[in-house]
Amino acid sequence: MARALTRTWYRIALGRAGAPPTVVAVAGEHMGIAVAAAERHAPGAFAIAAEVADHSEIPLGESLGKSALVDLGPAQDVPAFRWPVGVLPKLSRAAAVAGARHGWVRRADPSLLVIEAQTTADQVTDTFLGMIERLPSADNLEVRVLDHFDDAGCADVWLTSRIDARRILRFLDDHDEELLGNGHLELSVYVRAHRATLRLTEHKTVVWLAADGALEADVRRWLGELAIPAVDALVTVKDAPHFHYRPARSRDRRKLGEELYRQRLRRVDTLRPSPPA
User: Fold this and answer.
1) 151 and 111 Cβ atoms separated by less than 8 Å
2) Does 262 fall in a domain?
3) How many CB atoms lie within 10 A of CB 152?
4) Does one domain contain both 17 and 46?
5) Does one domain contain both 108 and 79?
6) Which domain holds residue 14?
7) Both 111 and 57 in a single domain?
């Protein structure tokens, strides 16, 4: 028997060029469906924040299936940054990310070179794939399905066999919306010759992690070629309470695992949170 689908109502703040942000209440089986419906409601609009709607904002016709979206008026104190698909700040706390912008910084770390870049929804795919194209070598792709995906409570680590950058790019291009737009995943490309990792994080930032600075100048140059400027500070969605979601037409956790298996990735580990001390 098919499982009954339940809908949740969300408040979605929408930004649009040349217009002040607005808020709508919209229902969906998961947040990605609600975000897509809200963006379709206002051509040219993009989601800038979200949260679960209060019962008072759910229309009376909902119980009869008569309503799917309600305009709630202007959005107050919500920065109109175009977040990559998969993450959104919490609407009532979005002021905390008022400084969000496009750019990269070097993060302080005692043992690793860490360079983190943030870009907007329309550029994140080109940025991550563009960085992979520029790598001197690549060995494996890891897909980490995180514990908050479908509230599973554990993270599954999937790994390709030893493959090169060209095959990694082809795989990601074939599954771009499914993988790159899913805020419940982290994607890592291992560069073993340089003891380095290029990662698309769960917060949709692109991070270079390396044991030394041998490729630092190259990474800085690659980011410049991709039109991402160095900035003095980087505010990301993790600096505020936020949500992770998957795109409207993407697979749930179980079906995604089945697809990764069909694509010959191996589940090499399942990570569970440590019990409290």
Assistant:
1) no
2) yes
3) 16
4) yes
5) no
6) 8-94
7) no
Q: Say if 242 falls within a structural domain.
A: no
**Rounded to two decimals, what is the model's pTM?**
0.93
CA distance 89 to 142: 26
Is 236 contained in some domain? no
Cα separation, 200 vs 197, whole angstroms: 10
Residue ranges of alpha helices (H) inside 48-189 are 124-134, 165-174
Span 165-190, pLDDT tens digits = 999 999 999 999 999 999 999 999 99
CA distance from start to end of the chain: 42
For residue 231 the two structure tokens come to 């900035």
Q: How many CB atoms lie within 10 A of CB 148?
A: 14
- For residue 31, what is the enclosing H or E element? helix 31-41
Residue 121 sits in the same domain as residue 200: yes
Residue 189: strand pairing partners: 141, 198
| CB-based contacts of 116, cutoff 8 Å, min separation 6 | 104, 105, 107, 205, 206, 207, 208, 234, 236
Average pLDDT of the chain is 93
pLDDT at 1 over 70: no
Q: Tell me if 186 sits within 8 A of 157, measured CB to CB.
A: no
Contact 121, 232 (CB under 8 A): no
Residue 104 contacts residue 234 (beta carbons within 8 Å): yes
Q: Are residues 134 and 107 in the same domain?
A: yes
Q: Identify whether 48 is part of a domain.
A: yes
- Residue 43: band (very low, low, confident or very high) from pLDDT cuts 50, 70, 90: confident
- What is the average per-residue pLDDT within 54-65? 63
> 85-115 b/e with 16+ CB inside 10 Å = b?
bbbbbbbeebebbeebbbbbebeeeeeebeb
H/E stretch holding 74 reads strand 69-74
